[in-house]
Amino acid sequence: MRSLVGFSLVLLLPLAGCVGTGLEETQAVTIGMSKEQRSDSVTLSGVVIKKPWTKNIESWNAGGGDYYVLDVGDTQIGDRSAEEGVILRPSDAVSLAQFEEFVGRPVEVSGEYIAAQPYVPESPMESYPTDIEGNPLPRGSGFKVYQITPVQ
Length: 152
Known about the structure:
With 152 residues, the chain is mostly beta strands.
């Protein structure tokens, strides 16, 4: 389990001198660990989207409920786990609920790609997608997020 030592929360609040000047106020929140604290991390840019559960392979891989994806457009990335880019996975530094704050917003995420794990059915009555040999498809791949920062 990762320690929260070095956990950072950065708030950029509007300057008092901007009040009443007609300038748009800005508030940005960085959640997670700094890049210096995760030397093995990868940084991706895109827009966070929320996708509902559907009966398809991507949704199966995401875990069977609503899920969050980083839409990277046509950018070449290490491992696409979603049509638009990567399925965002929580970590000790960034929770699943925190992704909701960034839906529809351009962000930078730092983290690591994670591979799908074999799925072991809990019941013989359970239904799940299978490969050509009848084995359950693996699930759980995506991008484990250690830091998420909005970009302007």
